[in-house]
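Q: My hope is that you can spare some time for a protein that puzzles me. Underneath my words sits a plain record pairing an amino acid chain with its backbone structure tokens. Those tokens are not coordinates but codes from a learned vocabulary of shapes. Thank you; the sequence and its tokens follow:
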Amino acid sequence: MQFFKRITALFVLLAAVAAAPFATAGTPETRADGVTVINLDQYGGHFTADETLADLKAGEYEFVVTNKTDKIVGFQIQNFKTHAGLDMFPLEPGQTRISRVSVTQDGVRFRCPINPTPWYDLDNIN
């Protein structure tokens, strides 16, 4: 029994080491003009980000949103505290659009208003 526990632990460790490079998100790029770029891919009912969304700073952001589904989806972004609309648009299958917004210390939240997608809250803005 002890042998099987060690073999299982070894496989878990090897799987974790092999998956680690793919599980980490990069740091958002801030261009020379001061705009920080966040790349979002939208799938059926959820978003994925190429960059980490933790520890963001107040400032100008471009959310580069790509529709990875085979149907029309949308992107809606609001001020986190006031829920004031900052931008909203539809995306055709395979289409990429950019939303440039000013993010304050209030934070922002985004979702797809067409598909049932939960709000993604970014309320950790410094």
Notes: Helices lie at 2-23. The longest strand covers residues 59-67.
